[in-house]
Amino acid sequence: MKWDITSLLSDCGRTLIKVELKEPINPIDVIELNKNVEERIKKLRNMDLVVLSGRLPIWAYASLTHKLSHLVKIVCIYDPKLNNKAVIVSSHSKAAREGEIIELSKEEIEHLL
Fold first, then answer.
1. What is the pLDDT of residue 9?
2. What CATH code is carried by the domain that includes residue 88?
3. What was the pLDDT predicted at 18?
4. Is 53:17 a contact under the CB 8 Å cutoff?
5. Are 30 and 64 spatial neighbours (Cβ–Cβ below 8 Å)?
6. How far apart, in whole angstroms, are the C-alpha atoms of residue 75 and residue 27?
7. How many domains does one find in the chain?
């Protein structure tokens, strides 16, 4: 496997997914990556809000966001440059809009780093 995926259901009720690449990936690898992340999310049984983290090519994030937007209500990307917050990149909820920034707990930040 070209990556490790760690997942956690936080005390705040958010699903946190961190992807760490072991080696460079090719665009075709996103099919398997999407499948692996989807399996992790389904095991946690939380389809409300997912926060993604990890050093990935932009096309991998785009593919993951597209895939997850069909599974969960809200997809966010963790960005340490925003004072350790996450940006909503896809939402099917009236309570959240794309571009909004969400605060993360200390526990969540530690998992995503």
1. 85
2. 3.30.750
3. 94
4. yes
5. yes
6. 21
7. 1
CA distance 101 to 89: 10
Tokens of 87: 């940006």
Beta-carbon neighbour count of residue 55 at 10 Å?
Answer: 8
Q: What is the C-alpha radius of gyration for the chain, rounded to an integer number of angstroms?
A: 13
Instruction: Say if CB 15 and CB 49 are below 8 A apart.
Output: yes
pLDDT value for 49: 93
| Pairing outcome for strands 15-21 and 3-9 | antiparallel
DSSP secondary structure letter of residue 82: G
Which tens digit of pLDDT belongs to each residue from 36-45? 999 988 888 7
Domain that holds residue 39: 3-112
**CB-based contact 102:93 (threshold 8 Å):** no
Phi, psi angles (nearest 5°) of residue 14: -100, 145
Q: To which residue do tokens 């707990």 refer? A: 105
Token pair 């760690």 is found at: 6
Size of the chain, expressed as the number of residues it contains: 113
pLDDT value, residue 42: 86
